[in-house]
Amino acid sequence: MTPGEIISYVLVIYIQPVLCCIGFILNTACIIVFCSSFSHSYYRKTSLLVYLIGLSICNAFQLLISTFVLVLPAAEQFIDGQQFEEECHLLRIMNAQTVRMGYPLLMSANYASIWIVTFICVSRYQSLCPPWTLWKKRLHFSRRSKLILFLILILSIALNIPRYWEMELHERHLIVTSLRFQLWYKIVQEGIIYGTIVYGLPLVGLAVINYRTLQLVRADKRERRRPSAEYRSAVMTMIIFSCFFVCTTLSALIRLVLIVVSESIFLSPKFLWLPDLSNLLMNMNALAMPIVCFVFTRGFRDIFFVIRYAPSTDQVAAETAEKNLLNKSRSGHRNSSFLNLVENKNSI
After folding, report:
1. What letter would DSSP give residue 172?
2. CA–CA separation, 78 vs 81, rounded Å?
3. Would you tell me how many other CB atoms lie within 10 Å of the CB of residue 197?
């Protein structure tokens, strides 16, 4: 094998499956913990918690479907067709079905996760803005997390529906249609939609949020309301921006090459590993985002401990009833004292 094929072999056979397994387990654990905390009456339901649940679901789905859309089809080229002829034939038939149906869903999950990460940073910055600033009011829409997640889901699926016509089955084999080679389709789908809406706008938004968050951190100490929260938010948004830039830039560059040059460049043994590296970085971004949000947001760390240390629903109800009874007794005592005082004044 050539050096390019060796790199591709290592990425596809060893690194990508391990990364998908670890990422899927991590995101699934986040979904279980955050949903359990979300349904717990002890913990306040914040918009950031809703965003993180949506991010974990999209990332888990992306990592799961990557196994059938990216890993297995790429591993097919390294199987000895003469020694494992029947297995290779069955794998080729299965890959033809899974790639055609799963590729648009994979891209939809990737689009949604990028937008959710952006809104996480926007919501975090909005919570740090002083109440009198204009951005506090302008970004208040980011608190409506359920509506935004619904719109993101609809938009990400709608933008990837045309990808179902990029490939079709012909005698149980997957072939690429002429639609994918149309210049206008490449410009719209890969240039405008992915390059501008999916990659460009979030990149600019994250850069602006980083700049404004750093401005809050550098403000005078007398004007800071929560210095520690500002510092954590600044570090979190900077790391999110770095991960997004590193992990998504190569994928955007490859799509640019698809428009300017041709897909045939990636069939060369020298550049065979570039799409595999791009897919790996995309899944690394899905693995890193929940970790970053978990580490640098104290409220999310508290969520993991609330299930273990928070009182049960019965205990909360009992404590609430006890407080209400105590308040009523205090109120009755104050009323009786006031009546006694009035009676004493009247008697005098």
Report:
1. T
2. 9
3. 15
Please, are residues 319 and 311 in contact by the beta-carbon 8 Å criterion?
yes
CA atoms of 106 and 190, how far apart (whole Å):
15
- Is the Cβ–Cβ distance between 99 and 176 less than 8 Å? no
Helix (H, G, I), strand (E, B) or coil at 118: helix
Distance CA 14, CA 70 (A): 13
- The verdict on 218 and 133 lying in the same domain is yes
- What CATH number is attached to the domain comprising 177? 1.20.1070.10
pLDDT in tens, the chain (348 residues): 677 778 878 888 888 899 999 989 888 888 887 777 665 554 455 777 788 889 889 999 999 999 888 888 877 777 776 777 777 778 888 888 888 889 999 999 999 998 998 898 888 788 777 778 788 888 888 888 889 999 999 999 999 999 999 888 877 778 888 888 788 888 888 888 888 898 889 888 888 888 887 777 776 455 555 556 556 666 777 787 788 788 877 777 776 776 666 556 656 666 677 777 878 888 888 888 777 766 765 555 555 554 444 555 555 455 555 666 655 555 555 545 544 544 554 555
The answer to whether 62 and 74 have CB atoms below 8 angstroms apart is no
Q: What residues does 87 pair with on adjacent strands?
A: none
Say if residue 40 is in the same domain as residue 53: yes
Q: Is residue 62 domain-shared with residue 143, that is, in the same domain?
A: yes
Residues 245, 339: one domain? Answer: no
Do β-strands 167-170 and 173-176 pair in parallel, antiparallel, or remain unpaired?
Answer: antiparallel
- Domain interval for residue 180: 3-310
Cβ-based neighbour number of residue 138 at 10 Å: 11
Same domain for 161 and 275? yes
DSSP type of residue 80: -
List helix spans (H) across the chain: 3-10, 16-38, 47-66, 72-75, 85-128, 134-138, 145-160, 183-185, 201-217, 227-260, 273-295, 298-309, 313-347
The angle formed by the CA atoms of residues 161, 162 and 167, to the nearest 5 degrees, is 110
Q: Could you say which DSSP state residue 141 is in?
A: G
- Same domain, yes or no: 39 and 123: yes
242 and 335 share a domain? Answer: no
